[in-house]
Amino acid sequence: MLSYVLNRFKSAIVVLFVVSIITFFVLMIIPGNPAELILGTDATPEMIEDLHVAMGLDRPLYQQYLSWLLDLFKLNMGKSYVYGESVKTLIARSLPVTISISVFAMAIAVFIAFFFGMISAIKKNSIIDYFSRSIMQLGAAIPSFWIGMVFIVYFGVKLKLFPVSGFVPINQNFIKFINSIFLPSVVLAIGEVGTLLRIIRSSMLDSLKQDYMDMAKVKGLGAGKIYIKYALRGALTAPLTIIGMQFAKLAGGTVVVETIFALPGLGRLVLTAVEHRDIVLLQGLVMFITSTVIIITLIVDILVMFLNPRIKSFHQGE
Amino acid sequence: MKNLKKIIVMLLVVLLISACTNQDKPDATDVKTDLTMGYTTEPEGLDPHRTAAASTFSVTNNIYDTLVGVTPQWTTEPRLAKDWVISDDGMEITFALRDDVYFHNGRQMTAKDVEYSFNRLKDAESPRARDYENIVKIEVLDDYNIKFTTASLDVELLKSFVYPWAAIVPEEEAANLKTKPVGTGAFTLKEWVPQQHLILQRNDNYYGSEVKLQTVKLVLIPDATSMMAGFQVGDLDIIPLTGDQVTMVEGNENYRIISEPMNAVQIMSLNTKNEFLSNEKVRQAMAMAINKDEVIEASVFGYGAKIGSHLPPTSPDYYDANNIIEYNPEKAKELLKEAGYENGFSINMSLPKNYQLHVDAGQVIADQLGKIGINVNIQLIEWGTWLSEVYGAKNFDSTVVGHTGRLDSYAFLSRYKSDSNDYISLTTGEVDELLENALKELDENKRKEIYKEIQVILANKLPAIYLQTPHTMLALQKNVEGMKIFPIDFYDFKDVYFTE
Predict the structure, then answer these.
(1) β pairing state of B345-352 and B480-481
(2) Angle formed by the axes of helices B444-461 and B280-289, nearest 10°
(3) Quick one: which of A117, B147, B228, B355 has the most CB atoms within 10 Å?
């Protein structure tokens, strides 16, 4: 088991290294010289050349990469051109925002998906089943920028129930914090709930067909115990993997929702970096986000291993 | 299952609480002194000598001062300099500085700071350095007098001292100006929280007339709909307005719109090296086939002014060249026939997809040109690609883009010099001499005549088809007064106040 964890760890590090190479070189060769972008349509070729040299962009690429990688090892991701602050500080400031809405959104999505997913699996083809299947369709079909705007106009402007945009940190005012992340989280949850619901429903259906379910019924256990303890546990592996992936996706930045609700999260930071061709910031962000995704996947894999005895025994046999 | 019920109840309670607590508005007994304005683009740091971004200058203009100021009517006025003298040959300018100006750190500003600031503006790390190459000597005469000498005559020299990048900064703070700006302006920076807001606070030692606002909070809201929502619920006192949103504000007695033509032109640039576009008649035919009113309607919902040459209507040197080539698709077809392209031809149009305004205009133009047999293939490209491929490498047939202006027409028009190496330079050289003369002509009226001549030549030769000057629009809550729109892209909050 330990060897499995270790192996996964090793491969994660290799992936990170490859990602660092790709991140650096792709961002370097994409069209759009940072000096040109900074100077815009007033620039003369001489001005661009001057700034290019001043920004250190005239050094050979491998030299730039090596010095960047070396700094990265020292956890120094450089200074953002736009903000003049260290990339680390900027990420540390944006991360709580993205994590807050991601966690809250996933909590909502998981709650709804499990509730309706289980019921519709147990009462297949009932009204609730049809209803939850429509939720699946809707969730997948409605674009988040549209539902976000509808929410802002209806709940923010018309009913004045929630602030129309902005973010209040949790340590400043808890209720205002919940207020500020509620709508964006719901919008995100709507986008994620469909996939999750579908997986839960089908795993649950699958698990209900298993022999041990008949055993449980024969033993005369109560419905609650049958469904939650036996059926659900057996049906948990697939949804857990999906939840992990969804969470990793959200934690990597939720550009659309953060833009609409003017939330200062990671997604907005990525967008600002792209808009201003803030290469240093962008490189730092891509590295950070990919590392996060890799780490979350690693954690989920280990969790799944604990939940699923088959994987555990398989690796123990190795 | 019991737990489930508890969770549901808890969630409902949280919802209810959050729904009830959002109505804590303070009582407005006194006149408000805290202004909140929405903005869409993050400044690129707050050091005026280290960026060329308009988003930076919008803010820094309130923190730093320049020697000379500008009015909304494009005239210059004293700012840090109370007076100036230009030598008879026009090569030297001497400024008399105010003696009551203090930096935000408490130190008095003197001519030495002016010298330092201009040297910093001219150094290698400054993106604007080459604009100030012509200034070859800076002499501090005494604490409050300073003289600038140029290498060659530039009659518009004074205007170089107006731009927000020509700001005066204290040497001892220079290293950290990007995040901790220190100037002499009417406001100091209280805090800048990246991606959220930027708060300016009144500078109580300001040398100018009394500033009424206590604080100005600039809130970053990237999305236009959210911006409008924030304005409608009253969170924001001022927002930038786009043409499609005007109907939401217009006619409502709680709001006010201020609008001025931008100091910018939207043009369809043509590559005169292209087989078809090198033919002057073809270019004229294209200009006749384009209905600019439709372009303005489609790209800025009608909030733009038609132009016929490369200066905006607000410029003091503007000449109305709209009548030189008028919309006439029938005559356009005849001209094409004369040029030998009766059956039309195909060209590419590279549009910068980050600018919806130009993409919309380009699509309408493609459609209009199609009607006279010119087939336009639209290619949407990234702004970065546009800058390197179209602007830099001149690898294009046609494009639609905006050129923002300076205060002096020379800076606006110098790209047309045959040796400017610009993507739309007029290679045949008709304007070269005129531009040289304009730069040396000391008589303002004669200069205007020269600029008029240049505008007429451009309107006929058409290295680009001149489309429009879009409007800058701001929506204000009705109790906000004193906000103005300037010919340079910046905001000025020192004269803004609330009436209730």
Answers:
(1) unpaired
(2) 90
(3) A117
pTM: 0.82
The torsion region of residue A118 among left (phi > 0), alpha (psi -120 to 50) and beta comes to alpha
Q: C-alpha dihedral over A248, A146, A160, B9, to 10 degrees?
A: -50
Give mean pLDDT, residues B232-246: 92
Using DSSP's 3-state secondary structure scheme, residue A216 falls into: helix
Taking CA–CA distances from A180, the nearest residue in chain B reads B18
d(CA B87, CA A242): 76
- Of B120, B109, B134, the C-alpha closest to B48 is B120
For A37, which residue in chain B has the nearest alpha carbon? B384
Whether B230 contacts chain A with CB within 8 A: yes
B144 pLDDT tier (thresholds 50, 70, 90) = very high
Give, for B472, the enclosing helix (H) or strand (E).
strand B464-477
pLDDT digits (tens, 9 = 90+) for B180-213: 999 999 999 999 998 899 999 999 999 999 999 9
Nearest by CB to A36, which of B42, B392, B402? B392
Residue of B nearest to A262 (CA): B221
Contact criterion met (CB < 8 Å) for B225 and A44: no
Residue-wise pLDDT for B77-135, tens only, equals 999 999 999 999 889 999 999 999 999 999 999 999 999 999 999 988 888 888 899 99
